Amino acid sequence: MAHSKKRHAQPPPEEKTPGKIIALLTDFGLQDAYVSSMKGVMLSINSSLNIVDITHEIQPYRIRQAAYVLWAVYNYFPQGTIFVNVVDPGVGSTRRIIVMKSKKYTFIAPDNGLLDFVVYQEKNVSSVEVTQASLKKLTTGDISSTFHGRDLIAPLAAYISNDVSIRQFGTPYQQPEVFSPFVSSRSDVAPMCVLNIDVYGNIITNLRSFEIEKSMKGIQAVSIGTNMVSKWIRYYDEAPENTPCLIVGSSGLVEISAKKNSAARFLRATLDSKLKVYWR
Questions:
Q1: Is 119 within a domain?
Q2: Residues 42 and 120 in one domain
Q3: What is the residue-averaged pLDDT of the chain?
Q4: 161 phi/psi in degrees, rounded to 5
Q5: Residue 241's closest CA among 253, 259, 223?
Q6: What gap in Å lies between CA 16 and CA 140, rounded to an integer?
Q7: How many domains does the chain have?
Q8: Confidence at residue 11, expressed as pLDDT on a 0 to 100 scale
Q9: How high is the pLDDT of residue 273?
Q10: Lowest model confidence (mean pLDDT) among 121-125, 245-249, 253-257
């Protein structure tokens, strides 16, 4: 016997609870279907998600650049944000996929060094090595050996956003110790390097400044390739025309910049350029 449906007075509309935030970082660019297909998979599982693009303009395969960009932005996001990171030259191989939880955030990435800057910063994290077997129970269709971002990482992030415990997706994983990727004194062992070249052509190094005045007094110059840069400025417009200068940028790292110009083009710099710091 069919039961009749009872009519109930409608309660006043409640304020909609905002969805979980997923912050997406890749080297996919925007001309292809890769980013959209990942977003489609995640929204199909959790349509209330708020997906934020960190960037998709990481240079192809540049893991260290991606690690820097993630480190530079993650602390500005609200607690509970899930960071989905796909710069994965080892896709389809035996490399691991890791889910890492810190006190405030969750990070998903291939285990290729992309999370190293965050691991160094956070210290106290717990991690799980994801198994494909655990994900196959929750996904449909084949898993492409060339696109784990869509077929493994995207559904994984969406299920975690639905409060599925990360322990369901694999086994505990002990993150190896990560030494400082930064240089802040002459005793540091990390090699000097270019972490990023931004849209303005500023060359962002891994030379870290905790006190601007102290850095200006302690660092005599930075060489990049065969070029020596020794003039310090406090803000971009202070620089002389056509003169690459040293400046402490917004992430607390020493940059090489040129006033209303591209220092990278001026110095023919790339992410592979060799750097050396000269201390006073």
A1: yes
A2: yes
A3: 91
A4: -65, -20
A5: 259
A6: 30
A7: 2
A8: 44
A9: 97
A10: 121-125
CA atoms within 13 A on the CB side of 90: 12
Q: For residues 113 and 181, what is the distance between their CA atoms, to the nearest angstrom?
A: 11
Residue written as tokens 């992430």?
A: 251
pLDDT above 90: percentage of residues in the chain: 79
What digits encode the pLDDT tens for the residues 40-72?
Answer: 999 999 999 999 999 999 999 999 999 999 999
Q: How far is C-alpha 260 from the geometric centre of its chain's CA atoms?
A: 27
Distance in angstroms (rounded) separating the CA atoms of residues 199 and 186: 30
- Is residue 14, in this structure, part of any structural domain at all? no
- Domain hosting 265: range is 194-279
Residues 244 and 205 in one domain: yes
How does pLDDT run across 112-167, given as a tens digit for each residue? 999 999 999 998 899 999 987 777 777 767 889 999 999 999 999 999 999 988 88
Cβ(110)–Cβ(152) below 8 Å? no
What's the pTM?
0.90
Q: Give the C-alpha separation, 237 to 250, whole Å.
A: 15
CB 275 within 8 A of CB 229: no
Cβ contacts of 258 within 8 Å, gap of 6 or more = 201, 239, 242, 243, 244, 245, 266
238 shares a domain with 168? no
Say which amino acid occupies 196. Answer: N
Band the pLDDT of 237: cuts 50, 70, 90: very high
